[in-house]
Amino acid sequence: MILLRQTIALSFNLADKFILHARRLCLRHWFILRETSRCRRLQIGAGNCFDMPVRNTGSGLLSIGSNNTFGYRMGPRLGNREILIQSRTAVSELMIGSRNVLSNNVSIIATQSITIGNDCLIGDRVIIYDSDFRSIQPTLRHSHSGPSKPIRIGNNVWLVAA
């Protein structure tokens, strides 16, 4: 009887692992298929793990290194847990290094340039923008995207939302 319980537990564990692996593959392939047509250039390294949906509605350069993790299945269920990494315009550049972990509900939007180094931890609900998206001048407020400055985040940085 004990052996039967262990066998059943092992088979459920293997089934769960298979389902998780299949989900990760689907999310990764869905991201690549959807984003290849939108980005000016998409570069994505090997070994990236997609635990949550990731999207980019921009048209600029999006470069993702290898062995990054996007999302955390056991994380808080706030919002839809989707991750937005957007190189907004054709001249925008968003570069993510290797071995980074991005939690759920993260938004990174580059109008000019955002670079994230290696081995960083980016917590739930962190927002990184290189622009405020509006000019403070009333006559330009609806037609100008406002000032933008490049952002560079180094290696081994831990970012959390306040």
Tell me, briefly, the overall form: globular
The share of residues in extended strands comes to 25-35%
Secondary-structure-based class equals: alpha/beta
Q: If helices are DSSP runs of H or I spanning 4 or more residues, what is the number of helices?
A: 1
**SSE order in H/E notation?**
HEEEEEEEEEEEEEE
Kindly report the spatial arrangement of strands forming the biggest sheet. Answer: 1-4-7-10-13
Largest sheet: 5 strands, parallel
Number of domains: 1
Distance between the termini: 52 Å
Q: Work out the helicity level.
A: 10-25%
Mean pLDDT: 82
Rg over CA atoms? 19 Å
Given as residue ranges, the uncertain stretches (5+ residues, pLDDT < 50) are none
According to DSSP, the number of beta strands is: 14
Characterization of the model:
The chain has one helix spanning 2-36, and strands at 41-44, 49-50, 54-55, 61-64, 69-70, 83-87, 93-96, 101-102, 107-110, 113-116, 121-122, 127-129, 151-153, 158-159. The protein has 162 residues and is α/β, with parallel strands linked by helices. It has one domain. The strands form 3 sheets. A 5-stranded parallel sheet has the order 1-4-7-10-13, with helices on one face. The chain has a 5-stranded parallel sheet with strand order 2-5-8-11-14. The protein is globular, with a radius of gyration of 19 Å. The model has no long low-confidence stretch (mean pLDDT 82).
